[in-house]
């Protein structure tokens, strides 16, 4: 099994793997301290949640090293993260998805409904995870054979630019018909060696033409590599991707059948139609590389590897699980399907076999991480069986003013750095002083106290309001060096923060 983390490539637009990118080990292979260190680059605080996630992820690798007779008995420690909105629950999932290297899927629990109601059934999350895994493994296989596909596509492009010469009639064909007479010009030449071996020899004119054609082809190859022919038009033959009528036969999202897709079956039966298109050479290269990758990648091997990864390394993050939690015993009103969704979710989490169009998938060893704010409901309002399937509970703490300061300065994707990059696109320099950052944090914390506490998301609203005029007038701004210190931040936001009505609508 390949143990490197690769970025998924869409099959329709392949791109070569970057040599500069250093391959990273799977997240499972990292020690827990290093997993936490990776999460620390983007998420401030919440050490307990990071620690629990790091242990659970590392345990996947430890299970793989365990003796075979006990390996199937080691069950994943599913986690439920509890905390108010905007404290980092979803961000932990996003970062895990980018670092994992294993199949990872994030779903919203509120999108699922009980079987019998219109909507998505919970088994669809496993089918989606399989699709993610298929794309991941296929992209890794494509990366391995990409140089070969690129070379083949280059030869096909050269054939388009310089079509091959028509084949001369063979000696066998000319001598096959009895009674035919051959003219001296058509008669093939043969050379007999001293050992008695007979070899055919091309006429000198044909040899010279082939040599001239070879030199022309090499010149075109050099121009192709130098990028001198990118805008030249070439005519290629492409296969039609789909049929409009078959698109209408697809089942609605969430209502797909487990293992039968009639649209795909009919597409396999209908003869493949091809049409000729005139495109720029760079577009033709993309299409031809795509075709060559499909020929080189063995999809049966991809499917087998992908299903194995799902069963042994898959991670499903169920967000907003509190939205399907209600007071037990209530069976009327709009919340009628909430407990039903929990009952449907239970066999998936505890381990069952789900049918997908690629085969059966066992969910026994998939790691489930759930998260919810639990403002109204409590974790104890979940049905007892489902509570038992999430034995690890982690509470995330609310963010303080000091945390806001760290969020705006420490992470690699800090909001202040993001806005500085946006301003740099217009040739301006944006700078936040230390007291300016503290003032923004103070205002965000104050607004969270007086109104709904939305955590770090409040920083988005405060910074957007603060920089609205600057970003609007930036192309014609008088100075290209913009500095926000404490007094400048207070001056711009004082009227909104002090005005109760304005604050409700703007911040």
Write the layout of secondary structure elements.
Layout: E1 4-5, E2 24-25, H1 32-40, H2 47-65, H3 68-71, E3 79-82, H4 89-100, E4 104-108, H5 124-161, H6 171-176, E5 189-192, E6 198-201, H7 204-225, E7 233-239, H8 244-248, H9 262-269, E8 274-280, H10 281-296, H11 299-313, E9 315-319, H12 338-350, E10 353-356, E11 359-362, E12 367-372, H13 384-388, E13 392-395, H14 401-409, H15 415-425, E14 429-432, H16 434-450, H17 457-473, E15 481-484, H18 486-498, H19 500-506
Helix pairs in contact: 1-2, 5-10, 5-11, 14-16, 16-17, 16-18, 18-19
Structural overview:
Helix 5 (124-161) crosses helix 10 (281-296) and helix 14 (401-409) packs across helix 16 (434-450). This protein has 19 helices and 15 strands. The two termini are 50 Å apart. Among the domains are: 23-139 and 300-395, P-loop containing nucleotide triphosphate hydrolases (Rossmann fold, 3-Layer(aba) Sandwich), CATH 3.40.50; 401-506, Helicase, Ruva Protein, domain 3. The longest helix has 38 residues, at 124-161. Mean pLDDT is 79; it is low at 1-24, 171-177, 179-185 and 253-259. It has helices at 32-40, 47-65, 68-71, 89-100, 124-161, 171-176, 204-225, 244-248, 262-269, 281-296, 299-313, 338-350, 384-388, 401-409, 415-425, 434-450, 457-473, 486-498, 500-506, and strands at 4-5, 24-25, 79-82, 104-108, 189-192, 198-201, 233-239, 274-280, 315-319, 353-356, 359-362, 367-372, 392-395, 429-432, 481-484. The chain has 507 residues and is of the alpha/beta class. The strands form 6 sheets. A 5-stranded parallel beta sheet has the order 4-9-12-3-13, with helices on both faces. The protein has a two-stranded antiparallel sheet with strand order 1-2.
């Amino acid at each position: 099994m390949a143990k490197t983390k690769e970025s998924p490539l869409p099959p329709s637009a392949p791109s070569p793997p970057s040599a500069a990118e250093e391959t990273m080990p799977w997240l499972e292979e990292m020690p827990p301290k290093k997993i936490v260190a990776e999460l620390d680059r983007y998420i401030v605080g919440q050490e307990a949640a990071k620690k629990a996630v790091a242990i659970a992820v590392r345990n996947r690798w430890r299970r793989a090293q365990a003796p075979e007779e006990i390996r199937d008995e080691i069950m994943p420690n599913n986690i439920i993260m509890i905390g108010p909105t905007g404290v980092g629950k979803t961000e932990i999932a996003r970062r895990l998805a980018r670092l994992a290297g294993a199949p990872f899927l994030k779903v919203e629990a509120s999108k699922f409904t009980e079987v019998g109601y219109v909507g998505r059934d919970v088994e669809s999350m496993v089918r989606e995870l399989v699709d993610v895994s298929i794309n991941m493994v296929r992209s890794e296989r494509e990366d391995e054979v990409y140089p070969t596909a690129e070379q083949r596509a280059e030869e096909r492009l050269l054939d388009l630019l310089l079509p091959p010469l028509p084949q001369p009639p063979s000696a066998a064909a000319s001598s096959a018909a009895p009674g035919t007479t051959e003219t001296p010009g058509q008669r093939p030449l043969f050379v007999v060696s001293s050992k008695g071996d007979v070899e055919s020899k091309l006429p000198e004119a044909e040899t010279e033409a082939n040599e001239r054609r070879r030199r022309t082809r090499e010149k075109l190859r050099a121009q192709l590599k130098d990028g001198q022919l990118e805008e030249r038009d070439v005519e290629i033959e492409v296969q039609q991707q789909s049929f409009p009528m078959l698109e209408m036969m697809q089942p609605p999202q969430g209502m797909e059948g487990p293992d039968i897709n009639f649209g795909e079956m009919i597409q396999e039966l209908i003869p493949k139609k091809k049409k000729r298109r005139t495109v720029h050479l760079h577009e033709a290269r993309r299409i031809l590389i795509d075709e060559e990758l499909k020929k080189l990648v063995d999809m049966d091997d991809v499917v087998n590897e992908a299903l194995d990864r799902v069963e042994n390394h898959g991670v499903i993050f169920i967000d907003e699980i509190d939205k399907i939690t209600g007071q037990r015993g209530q069976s009327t009103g709009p919340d009628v399907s909430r407990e039903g969704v929990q009952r449907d979710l239970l066999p998936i989490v505890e381990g069952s076999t789900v049918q997908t169009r690629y085969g059966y998938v066992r969910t026994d060893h998939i790691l489930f991480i759930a998260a919810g704010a639990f403002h109204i409901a409590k974790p104890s309002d979940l049905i007892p069986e489902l509570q038992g399937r999430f034995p690890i509970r982690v509470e995330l703490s609310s963010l303080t003013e000091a945390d806001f300061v760290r969020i705006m300065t420490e992470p690699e994707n800090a909001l202040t750095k993001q806005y500085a990059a946006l301003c740099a696109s217009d040739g301006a320099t944006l700078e936040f002083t230390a007291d300016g950052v503290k003032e923004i944090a103070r205002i965000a914390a104050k607004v969270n106290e007086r109104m709904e506490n939305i955590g770090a998301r409040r920083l988005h609203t405060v910074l957007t309001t603060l920089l609205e005029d600057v970003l609007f007038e930036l192309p014609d701004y008088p100075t290209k060096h913009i500095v926000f210190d404490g007094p400048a931040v207070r001056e711009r936001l004082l009227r909104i923060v002090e005005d109760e009505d304005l604050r409700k609508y703007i911040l």
